[in-house]
Amino acid sequence: MKFLTGGRKAPFTDRIASRFAFWIINGHAPPDQPALDQLERERRRHLQWLLVQLAIYFSFGGFLAMAAPDAVVFVAAVALLVAAPTLWRLGRDWRATPALFEGVDHEHELVQEVERACERSEHVARYRKRQRKLKRPLLRIEAVAMVAVPDLDEQHWRLGER
Question: Where are the domains of the chain?
Fold first, then answer.
């Protein structure tokens, strides 16, 4: 039943940002359009899974409410209490995740932070150069990962050195 409680997984946005950081440190190419489409499908699946969890909670609560009509208020309160963390994650991710894949070339402060990160890390500079060759805007999630990479202990993120 751990899947119903969400476990101890990192938030979806952190998982995607860490994937970009892993790609940057290990010299992978920036994602092209098919890879970005795959990430968008993954985002939609994540939101759908949260909706499925909520449906399970509320259908189970509805079943208990029908089985014990005298305790309908108690059952409804428990169902809402159990569903509250998932509702919170769904609301947060529904609002935040579409912005992950927006271009940030118009946000000069974030682009300046990325350029400073390029000066501090050769991996970021190499990734940024390859990203510019794709002639697509810098994504918000890419920018966040690029800014974070110089502060990471890159040895722990390299392939084969764990």
Answer: 11-154
pLDDT at 162: 45
pLDDT at residue 2, as a whole number: 53
pLDDT band at 8 (very low <50, low <70, confident <90, very high): low
Q: Which of 135, 113, 117 is nearest to 126 (CA)?
A: 117
149 Cα distance to chain centroid: 17
The two three-digit tokens of residue 28, written as one number: 């992978």
Strand, helix or coil at 103? strand
Query: Which residues, in sequence order, are CB contacts of 158 under 8 Å at separation 6+?
Result: 25, 26
Backbone dihedral region for residue 7 (phi beyond 0: left; psi -120 to 50: alpha; all else: beta): left
Q: Check residue 8 and report its DSSP letter.
A: T
Confidence bin at 159 (pLDDT 50/70/90): low
